[in-house]
Amino acid sequence: MRTMYFLTAAAVILPLLLSGCGSRHDVKNMMRQMRESELVIPADLRRIDGYSISEAPPERKDAALVIYYDSLVCGSCRVDKLAQLDTLFGLERTFPDFEVLVVFSPKPAEVEEIQVLLMKRRYPHPVYLDYSGSFRESNSFIPDDSRFHTFLTGKDGKPVFIGDPYVSKSMWDLFMSAVRQICL
Asked: CATH no. for residue 49?
């Protein structure tokens, strides 16, 4: 089953290979390394849920869609666009063993700004703030290329699907197929 997901994901990553943004060998190596690595959720992530802040790590579910915003991404821009993720969070009601983990890992100088923005917006779903950089340190298998910063993990915590499911209808269909196979 794991091979099927990665063969499918590899077909979706074909545009990366053709665009000249990395050699075929580099992309294969990144995918192999991700496939072999287990996601680590550091205990020191701050959970921001509306006005509430806690340092409780997320409960591990069978399937987790990780959306990682590193320090190179405009954090305030991403906070403003969180509503675009509502459909993904809605899947948590349909699939109780599925969760969405949105992790912001801003530059140290931007941590307070991002935290204030998240609380001000009162986003109705939990978002995690990596104020110490421990998420990146604990998951060194995640490439610098932001196209690999959204991925679905399976029951073993290893990525089984890589890419933004919103990119295209075919990507969404592949993502949903992976979620169903894990959760049903």
From this structure: 3.40.30.10
